[in-house]
Write a structure and sequence with these properties.
Radius of gyration: 18 Å
CATH superfamily: Aldolase class I
Largest sheet: 8 strands, mixed
Distance between the termini: 32 Å
CATH class: Alpha Beta
Number of strands: 13
Shape: globular
Order of helices and strands: HEEEEHEHEHEHEEHEHHEHEEH
Number of helices: 10
Length: about 290
Amino acid sequence: MSISLREVKTQHPCFATGAPNNKGRIHLPVSPGCNIACKFCERSINTTEQRPGVTANIITPSEAVDIVRRSVALSPDITVAGIAGPGDTLATPFALDTFRLIGAEFPTLLKCMSTNGLLLPENADALIDIGIDTLTVTVNAVDPAILAQLNGRITYHGRVYEGIEAAEILIRNQLDGIRAVTAAGMIVKVNTVLVPEINGGHIGEIARAVADAGASLYNIIPLIPQHELANRAVPTCDEIDGARTDAERHITVFRHCQHCRADAIGVPGGEDLGARVYGERRVDVGDTFSHG
């Protein structure tokens, strides 16, 4: 890896830790399926909601390259090509195929990927070879008893695991994967969904563990009540601030998250160019949106 954290903070809108850097990104929704069942996650195909896990359609890797061409022509501020779902980027091969194509045609764009980390250790060498610049791993707990309250099950190498056993596998793979890619120089940000009644008192421990594994940046995402956690309250400003304070004892905290869609295009907080770029949007995802 050739880019430094300092450079990333100036070029990637989701890694700037001071004022927003006003750089743009393209989210390419090429990854439909997921291999874990988060109790707060409700993926959806629509054109209206502004949150992660939502896209207007799923595109192919070759379509993604054309989307990048049109996007950078519209917005010279775009510096990042990212894949953040709507499913997990390593649960299907499409994200890696897309990054190979994009890297060949757009070598100056930063390549950014988000993952739940379940399959990160076994894919670490591929990510390094492709030249992923920045990786975001969602780590919601490093205590299996806590994680089991946030994630119901995983599907791992053809077998379904539940409860504590599933949580132990997921946590181990997340931390092992972070260690593997950061050892090669990849820059890692960790996202944590804050559910105060479940992991609110655990944020400092998560931050310490991921920092020890090599992560450089930490982002706390307030719960959007939905799916199995629809009855939970949205975290208050004081709860979010307290969680960030706990995390900052161990790692730098990112504070500008915009809850972006999986097909967002442009500068976060500005005009979303998605509708202009994607045009007529196809909805054809089959049965890929089952949880787990």
